[in-house]
Each structure stands twice: as C-alpha cells, then as structure tokens.
Amino acid sequence: MVQKAKILLVDDRPENLLALEAILSALDQTLVRASSGEEALKALLTDDFAVILLDVQMPGMDGFETAAHIKRRERTRDIPIIFLTAINHGPHHTFRGYAAGAVDYISKPFDPWVLRAKVSVFVELYMKNCKLREQAALLRLQLEGDGQAGSRHEREPAGLLAELSARLAAVEEQAEALSKQLDDESADAAAVATAAHLERKLTGLRRALDALEPGTGGGASVLPAPS
Fold first, then answer.
1. Which residue of 63, 139, 184, 192 has the smallest Cβ count within 10 Å?
2. What does DSSP assign to residue 54?
C-alpha cells in the first residue's frame, strides 16, 4: 500500500482550514491542521510534509516569521511553502513572501482548481523523491548483506542488480513523465527546479548501479548518499 503524503494547512481561522480541506480532499492525501505558527512548527518536529499552505496574517507569529523558522531548520528547510493571503499590498508584499522562502504566493479569493493543481505537483514530486530514497536504502542493505556474507556468497549478484535496475527504471520513467507534464503546463519555476533536482539524483543512482555491474570494477563506495 502506497503511503500518503502529508500536507500541512496553517491558518488561525477554522473556516479557512475547512475550506482548504474541502478543496484538497480530492487529492486523497493526509491533511494536517495547524491554527498558529507555533502549532505548525510543533507538527514539523515529528512529521514529514510534502508541502505547507501557510496563511500570512495570523496573530502572534505571522506567516513570514513562521516561514523563517521553517527555513532555518535543516529538517524542514526544503519543504515547499505556498503563502495564502487575504490582502495584497503590491509587489513589495509579494517579494517579501518569496524572500521568506515561499515557492508561491496566492491572494484570496483564489481559484480552487489552480490551488489544487499546484499542491498536486509538489505532492507528486515528494512521492517520487520518497521512492528514490527507498531504492537507495534497499540497495545499501543488499550490498551490506553481501559484504557481511563474505566468502559464503561469492556468486555474482546479477539477479539483485537486475531487480534494482528494473525498479529504478520505473521511477525514472515516472520522473520523465512528470518533467514533461511540468513543461507542458508552464509550471512554477520552483516546481521545475525540484523536478530537475530529482532527475539529477536518479542519474546519480543509475550511474552507481551501472558501476556495480560485473566487470566494471565498481563497488558499494560509488553509491550516492540520499538527500
């Protein structure tokens, strides 16, 4: 069973959170509520999120301050943030949102279809990245097991490499399709950049697998670290 991605919804008004849940429920992912910046930061301590929808104007810690805390933490700095605001103070206000680390800045009232489409892109990128990390971890475990077995298992691990190569090929195919979709839809630059980063990681893993093929002289040391 495929694990669902978590989406963090941050707004001090319950009716706004309810509206966001109604819009995003069609994505069939796990929606997590936070009614303040402090509550959002607490949720981020224990859970991993695909994307954060963050209201700008909140009492106490506002959206900009909350985003600054998120970007300072190593665990959460790479989570995409979409700012939502009921007001528009012009280009300077929008620039402040991007400067705080947001990948998008949307003024209310917004088009529900557009918001859902934007969120779905980041959810899909998150899921692809999770698959990549799982494949890298599986390969490491298999290689460590072969190394610990020593002379008792000196056979060629051709079957293992073939299986891992096939699994990686499936992820590569999905990543390529996603990149084409982003190009066709003229997606946000941040989404395109994230997809390109994922493709680079896939390329690194493919090179590591190729280096492990018999006769290439490769070894477990060439495997790239997951990010």
1. 184
2. E
Helix orientation angle between 63-72 and 37-44, rounded to the nearest 10 degrees: 20
Q: Which two tokens stand for residue 67?
A: 């985003």
Q: Which residues have a Cβ under 8 Å from the Cβ of 8 and sit 6 or more positions away?
A: 32, 34, 40, 43, 44, 49, 51, 52, 53
The dihedral through the CA atoms of 115, 116, 118, 119 has a sign that is positive
Q: Are the C-beta atoms of 49 and 4 separated by less than 8 Å?
A: no
Q: How far apart are CA 13 and CA 203, in angstroms?
A: 44
Structure tokens at 104: 């998008």
Q: Residues 36-81: pLDDT tens digits?
A: 999 999 999 999 999 999 998 899 999 989 999 999 999 999 999 9
Q: DSSP letters of 23-34? A: HHGGG--EEEEE
Model confidence, pTM:
0.64
